[in-house]
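Consider the record:
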Amino acid sequence: MGRPSHGSDGLAGTEARPVHRRETAEHTTTRAQRAVAAYLLVGLALLGAWSPSSLGATLVGAAMVFLTAYMVLRLTLVLASRGYRTPEQEPVPDDELPRYTTLHPMYDEANMIPVVVAAMEAVDYPRDRLECLLVLEERDGATVAAARAFDLPDHFRIVIVPAARPYGKPKACNYALQHATGDLAVIFDAEDRPEPQQLRKAAATFRAAERRGDRLGCVQARLVFDNEQPLRDGEGRTRRDDDGYDVRPTTWTSRLLGNEYAVHFDLVLTGLARLGLPVPLGGTSNHFPVALLREIAFEREQMPTMPDPDDGSVGAWDPWNVTEDAELGGAIAAAGWRTTVLDSHTDEEACLTARAALNQRSRWVKGYAQTSLVLLRHPWRTARAMGPLSYLAFQLQVGGTFVSLALSPVFWGLFGAYLLTGSDRIASLFPGPVYYAGMALLVVGNLALLTVSLYAAESRGRHGTVRHLLTVLPVWWCLLSLATYVAALELLVPSWRPSWNKTAHGERHLGMGRRLALASATWFAAPELTPVRSVAKPAVRFLPPDRTASVLATGYVAPGVSAPRMPARPARPAPRPVRGGARPVVREVPKAPVRWLSEQSREAVLV
């Protein structure tokens, strides 16, 4: 298959290349790879037995060479992105627009059905040329029931994926692709909200490439985590709902994830596209010609067995690879097609907690490692298909991410131990050139990474992310390294390899500061007023003198009976009560009238 032209910016030639045969990640390593690893370990063991210091210096030197190459590539891509130009577009009239199929794989996301429908209803594309497939799992009864109960528009269809291992997004998309009727296809996750003009822009980009004779295989839109910053009102205050939850919850995790997306899509991918190098695709908003996906698909015997023997699943994505999009980007390049980055964006929702980010990043890093190991099975053949430079750059992108994150804590630990102990053994690991390379990576490399992150944040106007980068970025790097070790553990356990660490979306969240604020407001709030009855003041009436004698004599006043009138006497103290004799003078106090107030009067009493 002929190699596409990459224009003036391309680094690769135009010679013919062999046909690339894709392989799945069902098995992490092959027998040949395990044999090579065993021979390498034996050689290192023999070197360590002969000279332990030589073994340590060799390992450290090899790691330094690798990390230096990785850092140089990253900085080269960032610099190359400054000259990136968005691909040429040729407007397409409505009556000539290609039929578009959007795939929406969902699992355990019944609450997101209205979100998906609303997002696609906002897309500006003729409804008679748009097909939206809700790709649902048969074993997810709640989401299936929610989709069937929802009043779906006419251009929506439900595709039920049979319950067969391995579970996950790539196998679901393969199954749904056989039902697609569009000329172009794109994947959107449940929380995605694409720019309304995105489908039109992608169609116009493919039309312009076709006119030029350019073999354009994929158009990748930029992904944006919109909850990198909170939603504010006109006065700059964070908008909250009636229960005190943020309308767009934002945490330090979502800010740093959003910054990673800014670096990846705005700088790294655009740099790769400008240099004509393979692009590890994002998990969503990548647009393909359906014919291309069928052309480069896996062979039928490589796919998992489905319950229906007549199943027509298209093996466009590796069902055992948990970052199937990155592997597909390499396959597109190996088949002689090009990928470009579209001047359009899709809003997504980032994880809100460190635990959720750990699970998500461990899946991403594990998928990168799977892709790298698969490409290492036949390195010479794959390098001939991609081109040597493209193959090396792609391996540094996917495999280098895994290795660099795994090595980072090791070298930081050695650096800290040397500062505390001044050990000569640690110093012997870093002879002259290795020492200077290590110091350059430690100082210049880390400052460069911080500078790139700050530049990406400012380019997108995420000024609130800057202070998080300056304060918690080292903590974030530690979390990424921990995710890498989790990914390595999952790769070692066969049953964990295709496991899909699902990320929940559409959840309400209260940050620690907001929870403390609400708790404080509850603690120091004034007690609620309790409604009370209105009791009139008792009427107290003193007895007249003509009734006082009988009271003194008997202690009882008969109703309606008047005692004989007594002559007036000077006032004297009341007699002391005599035991068994007369009772003291009492007042006649009638029963107090109790009256319930009306609602309006009751409110007045409360005030």
The longest helix spans residues 388-421.
